[in-house]
């Protein structure tokens, strides 16, 4: 995922697997202000759980202690950075591995690509990114078709009918990702439904069960999770065997992996990472983007004008997406306001320093992205949805520092940007989006921010 990003539960895995626990009294927080452990064994974990999420805990932590703050997970010191200036200062020399991949593989019990061999990691990363890029090129018309089907469906709704964004756009993401990742097999609805059921079971436990330890306390939940993961792996193995050594008119992501020097196990694991992350990131980026546009008629009209000028009445093409500057501003602002990925982290491999604070080797450093994305010292009127702020080069640079654009933009996010651009280019040229009055949409912050309840809009046809 993001070149430096590991989402909410990453710190659990790193702390348990990377280094041995130390007692709180054995390490000082290097002068960094923060909390003392609530409990000797769990540190500040009870405080995190009581706040509802790691993101919400970090918001309160930084409000009290400032941009650099510390807390304890178990018997380990954790340092959190909550300002753009501190994040710019924090340099980690390890740029060969993909931490989001590392996090997901650790959670899933996978070992492929985690050997620490820099050359192998770089090669695998290039093949992975190339696989997504090729799959997009070969299957762009599929995305157009799926989006057009959805927009046509919405256009047929009565103007008073409430449209559930999360349900519909997760369906769009799931159909796009499964077919682009694994090919024609997933043209069949029953295959997509089966995969979606298993995907939801696995992702929900990754997002919550590992953080609070509740998964291991429930044999029923753990079996449901393990059965779902096993069924997904069985499907991926079957697809890999069906497609190995064969050529297809539409290249799928898995085909590029099969052409590489990878074992079946490696192919299955990399395909699992793409399908898991790709579905959730794409669905939530699309859902938040459509919701925020429904709250701003001005933004809709600016986007409509750009689409008319760049595309005319023609469908969008892959090479035209980069010309849609305002569309990208809308998506950037969507990520910022929704705090799409609120947490990232790095293990401090060598002793480091931010401002006057020394960060000891093997300290876990949390990047409080959700805090930074709505910091009023960085963003004017931070809680306002305002795509025009990304007219400024400084705003674009800040987003790049956080890993949401530029060289650190992850392949799954790039895939999500593409699907979202196709969706908005089709939707806004045909329909006007309207807020449902008195609706309050709140976010749930796990690995990716998601509306707690489905968000709704109404639509009307453009004259």
Automatic annotation (TrEMBL):
Keywords (alphabetical) are: Heme, Iron, Membrane, Metal-binding, Transmembrane, Transmembrane helix
Q: Which Gene3D superfamilies match?
A: Cytochrome P450 (1.10.630.10)
Q: Which residues cross the membrane?
A: 6-23, 273-293
One Gene Ontology MF term:
iron ion binding
Residues binding heme: 410
Q: Which cofactor does it need?
A: heme
SUPFAM superfamilies per the UniProt record, alphabetical? Cytochrome P450 (SSF48264)
Q: Which family does it belong to?
A: Belongs to the cytochrome P450 family.
How is this protein named in the record?
Answer: Cytochrome P450, family 20, subfamily A, polypeptide 1
Q: Which organism is it from?
A: Lepisosteus oculatus (Spotted gar)
């Amino acid at each position: 995922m993001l070149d430096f990003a590991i989402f909410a539960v990453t710190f659990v895995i790193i702390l348990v697997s990377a280094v041995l626990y130390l007692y709180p009294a054995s390490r000082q927080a290097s002068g960094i202000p923060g909390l003392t452990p609530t409990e000797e064994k769990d540190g500040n974990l009870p405080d995190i759980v009581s706040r509802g999420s790691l993101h919400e805990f970090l918001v309160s932590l930084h409000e009290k202690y400032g941009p650099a703050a510390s807390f304890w997970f178990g018997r380990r010191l954790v340092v959190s950075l909550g300002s753009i200036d501190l994040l710019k200062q924090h340099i980690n020399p390890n740029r060969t591995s993909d931490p989001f991949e590392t996090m997901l593989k650790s959670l899933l019990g996978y070992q492929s690509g985690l050997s620490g061999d820099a050359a192998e990691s770089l090669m695998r990363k290039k093949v992975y990114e190339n696989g997504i890029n090729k799959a997009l090129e070969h299957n762009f018309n599929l995305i157009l078709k799926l989006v057009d089907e959805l927009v046509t469906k919405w256009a047929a709704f009565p103007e008073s009918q409430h449209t559930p964004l999360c349900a519909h756009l997760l369906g769009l993401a799931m159909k796009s990702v499964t077919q682009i990742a694994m090919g024609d097999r997933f043209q069949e609805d029953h295959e997509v439904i089966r995969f979606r059921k298993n995907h939801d079971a696995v992702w929900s436990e990754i997002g919550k069960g590992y953080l609070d330890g509740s998964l291991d306390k429930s044999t029923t939940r753990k079996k449901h999770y393990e059965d779902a993961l096993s069924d997904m792996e069985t499907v991926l193995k079957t697809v890999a065997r069906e497609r190995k050594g064969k050529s297809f008119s539409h290249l799928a992501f898995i085909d590029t992996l099969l052409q590489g020097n990878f074992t079946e196990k490696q192919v299955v694991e990399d395909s699992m990472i793409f399908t898991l992350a790709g579905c959730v990131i794409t669905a939530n980026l699309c859902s938040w983007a459509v919701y925020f546009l429904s709250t701003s008629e001005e933004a809709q009209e600016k986007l409509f004008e750009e689409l008319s000028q760049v595309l005319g009445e023609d469908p969008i093409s892959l090479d035209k997406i980069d010309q849609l500057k305002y569309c990208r501003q809308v998506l950037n602002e969507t990520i910022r306001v929704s705090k799409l990925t609120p947490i990232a982290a790095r293990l401090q491999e060598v002793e480091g320093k931010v401002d006057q604070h020394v960060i000891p080797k093997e300290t876990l450093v949390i990047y409080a992205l959700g805090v930074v994305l709505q910091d009023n010292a960085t963003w004017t009127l931070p809680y306002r949805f305002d795509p025009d702020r990304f007219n400024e080069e400084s705003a674009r640079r800040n987003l790049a520092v956080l890993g949401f654009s530029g060289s650190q933009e992850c392949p799954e996010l790039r895939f999500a940007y593409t699907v979202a651009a196709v969706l908005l280019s089709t939707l806004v040229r045909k329909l006007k989006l309207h807020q449902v009055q008195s609706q309050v949409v709140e976010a749930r912050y796990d690995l990716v921010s998601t509306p707690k309840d489905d968000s709704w809009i109404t639509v009307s046809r453009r004259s």
